[in-house]
Amino acid sequence: MTRTRSYKDDLLKALTNPEEAREYLNAALEDENPEVFLLALRDVVEANRSMSELAKATNRNRESLYKTLSEKGNPQLNSVRSILSNLGFKLAVDTKN
Fold it and tell me: Rounded to the nearest 10 degrees, how much is the dihedral formed by the CA atoms of 38, 44, 47, 48?
């Protein structure tokens, strides 16, 4: 019997690399559905920090953070900036190519 590896495990391992995580988040931002970015951000958080650590660093409670990063989350811009900053990223705007 052939063993298979979990896609999610491989994804989370890849997202520990800051360049991979940056590209993953940027690709998610290109989707018209804002839920895609929130789920991608949640994957990056899961790969790099615990929700408890991030909640403490962003001065939010853990439950609120889970809700913010859910498919139906509706975070304010300052929340997204705070999360990204605590992961070592910044929010930026670029020109279309």
Answer: -120
The reported pTM is 0.86
**34-48 and 7-14 helices cross at what angle (nearest 10)?**
80
Evaluate if residue 26 carries a pLDDT over 90.
yes
User: Which residues, other chains included, contact 75 with Cβ-Cβ below 8 Å and sequence gap of 6+?
Assistant: 38, 68, 69, 83
Residues comprising the chain, all counted: 97
Is the predicted pLDDT of residue 1 greater than 70, yes or no? no
> Distance between terminal CA atoms of the chain?
47
DSSP 25: H
Query: Which tokens go with 16?
Result: 């520990």
The per-residue pLDDT for 42 is: 94
Kindly give, in sequence order, each residue whose CB lies less than 8 Å from that of residue 62, ignoring residues fewer than 6 positions away: 51, 52, 55
CB–CB of 5/36 below 8 Å? no
